[in-house]
Write a structure and sequence with these properties.
- The structure is a single chain.
- This protein has 251 residues and is of the alpha+beta class.
- It has one domain.
- It is 41% helix and 12% strand.
- The strands form 2 sheets. The protein has a 3-stranded antiparallel beta sheet.
- Helix 2 packs parallel to helix 8, helix 3 runs antiparallel to helix 6 and helix 5 packs across helix 6.
- The radius of gyration is 22 Å and the shape is elongated.
- The two termini are 27 Å apart.
Length: 251
Amino acid sequence: MESSACGRLGVGALSWLPWLCLCALLVEPARAAIDPKTLRCLVCRNIVDEFESAISKLNPKKMVEIGNYRLDETGNIHQNKVPLSRSQVHLSDMVDDVCSKMTDYVRVRYKATQKLAVMKMMSDTGGMNPDFSYTDFVTDDDLNKSLEFYCEEIVGENEDQLVEIYAKRPTDELPDGKIKFCDEYLNLCEDWMLPSEEDRNWSPDDEKSRGANPYGFGGMNMPPNNDYEDDEELEEDVGELELKANDKEEL
């Protein structure tokens, strides 16, 4: 089972793969009932994040021709042009890649509130997401496959609307897609489902009073956010964690 879970990790998490697989071997993830509507809301918001991230990487000056050709009064042929980031055809192609990114996410619960979240494993800078320190890793028998399933369901049934929100924006400024798409169009999200400051109200002292959590990332120390030059350095850090975990078991 653990090897299957490791196989689902996205490319962005490969440098952390040995450590994450070690976690899976040493701790048994918590299983808890998950509200499908809440999960759809959270997945939808991550769809928007990934889509906007892809759009932001496009060259804002690149233009593409759209629509039919037309002749002006002098006989010259013209065609309308729009920025690539607002091309309906190109945006549709980009949407098709969004759901593959869901393998980079895991389900967690905030320690302070037990609120469900869908969190990206890696930060934008390349290290482990620091917000994991506020959460416990949770899963059920589908090994997080439902994240990609819900993504495909949402995108498959509503791709045209999602693309239209971004293609028809009047300027290059991105709209608030989470509100327009997830909240207003799909009516998926309510305020209580979304992360808040209260969820992060957790400190090392709280961890000590509760004790090491056998169901989450708090159950063992995370390796430092090193930029490893090779696999050998990473394996050394993972090996140290494994020794510490074995020492705790012997005690």
